[in-house]
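Repro case for the chain-ordering regression, as requested:
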Amino acid sequence: EAGVVQSPRYKIIEKKQPVAFWCNPISGHNTLYWYRQNLGQGPELLIRYENEEAVDDSQLPKDRFSAERLKGVDSTLKIQPAELGDSAVYLCASSYGTGPDTQYFGPGTRLTVL
Amino acid sequence: KQEVTQIPAALSVPEGENLVLNCSFTDSAIYNLQWFRQDPGKGLTSLLLIQSSQREQTSGRLNASLDKSSGRSTLYIAASQPGDSATYLCAVRKRWNDMRFGAGTRLTVKP
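-- result from build under test --
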């Protein structure tokens, strides 16, 4: 069974540029998560989707970050414009149910903003 | 707000040694606690999950314990191997889907 797929794996951009990350969860998983992991820190939740609905986006900086999950499968996380402080690893995870099921993580996208 | 702390931040041991990683949390009203492993450039892999009603979980050479009243969990690794080198993170789930991570312990096992 394929795991969570993320692309790109690495991205280097200049500040004020836009950037987008893509995530394909495990087939059949209803819940999708986006996390941000700063260097030397644990992941922090940005947004959680149950099917197509964003049910927890309280930690998403809405002035520059946006996300969507069309048809309840793939998801895209966008930053526009990027700032120096956005440099981090962006992790996508998915779980089967909408409860506290085990989350399966993708390899992440490492973003560097110059 | 739930705070999760992991000590030590880094640990280096010779192969074959038994070791203990520590995790503490400030709010004891948790749903469960999970230990993850993270290899460089890769995502997180779940190792052990302890429900709030449980005291410990075991998987192979790994044993995790939970003491909710004191806000502590330990991950015990027996007979460490170089392949165990990774960052180990604990995560505490308070509500249905609110998971808070510690910063991790970076483990190096030297041959």
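Ordering looks correct now. The mean pLDDT of chain B is 94.
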